[in-house]
Structures are given as C-alpha cells and as structure tokens.
Design goal:
167 residues, alpha/beta, Dihydrofolate Reductase, subunit A, 8-stranded mixed β-sheet, two-stranded antiparallel ribbon, 4 helices, 22% helix, 32% strand, globular, binds NADP nicotinamide-adenine-dinucleotide phosphate
C-alpha cells in the first residue's frame, strides 16, 4: 500500500490557524477531491472536527488518544501506524494522510509520496508543515497556476516521491 500525504502549504510553511484553513482556493479543493475520492483517508482528531462533516465518498480513520471518541461511523486509530494497518487490512492501494500539523510531523517520516499544493503567499498561522528535505524527497511533477478571478493566490501542485521508494 502506498502511503501518501496531501497538504496545502504557504510560503512560510503555514497550513492553518484557529483549527481552520487560512485561504480559499477552489482549484485546490477540486484537486484535493479528485485525488482523494474513493480512498481511505487518515487525519488527526482536530482536523476531522475542522471539516464539520466527514468528506463524502472516503472512509475516514481518525487518530485520537480517546478510545470513546465519536467519529460518526468512521474508524478510530491510536497512532498513525495503526491507521496504516487498518487501511492495509481493507486492501487500500493508496491511503492519504490529510493532516493536521501533529499528524504530518509523524507522516513525513513514513510516507512514500507527498501531494503538496504550494500557495505562493505568506499567511499568519498557528500550525505548520515541516520544511521538505530534498535529500529525502524528489520532486517528480509540478504544475504552476497564476491567480485568477476565483483563486486569489498563485499556487502550484507539486508531487514528491521518497528517494528510493519503490513507487
Ligand atoms: N493546509 C492543509 O493542507 C491542512 C490539512 C489538514 C489540517 N490543516 C489545519 O491543521 C490544523 C489542525 O492541526 P493540529 O496539529 O492542530 O491537529 P491534528 O494533527 O489534526 O490533530 C491533533 C490530534 O490528533 C490526535 N493525535 C495527535 N498525535 C497523536 C498520537 N501520537 N497518538 C494518538 N493521537 C494523536 C490527538 O487527538 P486527541 O486530542 O483526540 O487525543 C490530537 O489532539 C487546522 O488549522 C487545520 O485547518 C491544514
């Protein structure tokens, strides 16, 4: 099973503030939906709550230390490793780690791929994604987009593969 991270990151590594996103980019929401649809998705309890409602069409695994947490019919895991085991047992071929900051810190050491939306702007944030270590990660694809009527900031869809990963 391929283990992939999906994240949108500002120039200063910010990914969120006050348990929400700090920008609105419809093109990125569309890309996120297309990439993750039908796959098992993993997230920390705070990110799960930040969605409001679970994402349709994607079985969720919520990481929490609270075994009684109500994940609205979705699965619970007590660690990222356990979440990967659950998805693998369900025969998932590519599972997506969707954040947030606490979970990404572990995930960058375990993932095979990263789908990173670079948002070309600096934002005030309280949650950050680690700097990408290019001695560990190889950029395999990049698509750049300018700001437009609907998307206020320029952005890039970048895909990284762990060097030496068999994918
Ligand atoms: N830009 C993006 O792409 C993106 C994506 C996702 C999220 N975000 C943003 O990120 C922020 C949320 O991130 P966050 O770091 O505050 O929270 P988070 O990573 O979503 O969730 C943290 C929670 O996960 C559980 N957890 C974390 N580590 C654990 C471990 N080792 N073992 C067991 N459970 C563990 C704990 O839940 P319990 O407290 O229940 O035990 C912890 O409170 C929001 O602002 C959100 O909008 C941005």
């Amino acid at each position: 099973m391929k283990k992939s991270i999906m994240v949108a990151v500002a120039e200063n590594q910010a990914i969120g503030k006050d348990n929400g996103l700090v920008w609105h980019l419809p093109a990125d929401l569309k890309y996120f939906k297309e990439t993750t649809m039908g796959h098992w998705v993993i997230m920390g309890r705070k990110t799960f709550e930040s969605f409001g409602n679970p994402l349709p069409g994607r079985p969720h695994i919520v990481i929490t230390r609270n075994p009684d947490y109500n994940a609205k019919g979705h699965r619970l895991a007590e660690s990222l490793q356990q979440a990967f085991e659950i998805a693998a047992a369900e025969n998932e071929k590519e599972v997506f780690v969707l954040g947030g900051g606490e979970i990404y810190k572990h995930a960058v050491d375990l993932a095979d791929m990263m789908y990173v939306t670079e948002v070309h702007e600096t934002f005030e944030g309280d949650t950050f994604f680690p700097e990408i270590d290019l001695s560990v990660w190889q950029e395999v694809s990049r698509k750049d987009f300018s700001a437009d009527d609907k998307n206020k900031y320029a952005f890039s869809f970048v895909i990284y593969r762990r060097r030496g990963a068999g994918w």
